Amino acid sequence: MSQQEFITGKCSQCGEELRIPAHLETFSCMYCGARLTPKDLVEELPPLNLEGDPDQLMERVTRDLLSCIAGREALRKEISRNRFAEAFTAYEQSCRPIFDDLDMACRLVPDRRDDLLQQSVNSLLDQLEQRWAAKRGSRALALEEDKMIVAIFLVPMVGRLNLSVSDDFCNLLQQTWVQRYPKYPFYVGSYDAIQEGFKKRFKFCFITTAVCEAQGKPDDCAELTAFRAFRDGYLMETADGPDLVEEYYRIAPQIVAAIDGCADRADRYETIRRQYLQPCYDALCNGREGECKAHYIRMVRDLEQEYLS
Length: 309
Prior knowledge:
The chain is mainly alpha-helical. The chain has helices spanning 54-64, 84-108, 113-134, 139-161, 166-180, 191-201, 206-214, 222-237, 241-260, 265-285, 289-307, and strands spanning 6-10, 17-21, 27-28, 35-36. The protein has three domains: 6-40, no CATH class; 54-192; 205-307, no CATH class. A two-stranded antiparallel sheet has the order 1-2. Strands 3-4 form a two-stranded antiparallel sheet.
């Protein structure tokens, strides 16, 4: 077997040194996540051109930040193992110029950096509050819907850009959000963690696996073993069972991703365990598969309504 050939060079986005198999036509930078081709590798990054008016840059930032959330409702349907990466990449491409401007403004006037970051965060949340007030229906529901976009797309996207402001912006947004809306917290997650979650849970029972993981139970615990046997046996043999399982595999990753974006996700998983999974398990242990199925359907419908509707 011939020895594999490699090409080396620096990422044109972050400047880190990369060593890539020569046969790859596209690849991701292992440091910043940027999608590259061999032509994108450089020997050295050009010197940073610190030009521009920071106030004009910030005017664009505060004007455009809301577009990272408003009008993005369709993204909730893209939170699945097969669709998330493509949707996230498109989202990143459309939102990146806003954060490039913010990063440049902070580099131009480093003594104002903290104030500019706080200005951007306050402006975004102020505009969101105006958006929620203008919407018909429940303000709490509108807040939760936008929080999902913030936690699963906006914050991981800014983090993956790996700009000089990335970490501070994400942490400041999370802290200011929690101060304003303590009943609706989220945590600072990453794109890689979300993708890894899809990979880990794809083979099995997404929600039950997530609940058991939150309790520290192993993958072969009694509950997961029983639920998998129920799914592959009794449920698949019922008339509507295959359709129910197919629907579950379609929407469950979105539900888990939405819950994982919440800072109180441990409490939410405990509620799901107590309200749905424990009655399911008790029914299974006592040979009442039909009752277990009824609990299962109610769980999926209720969680779909809460997190995806």
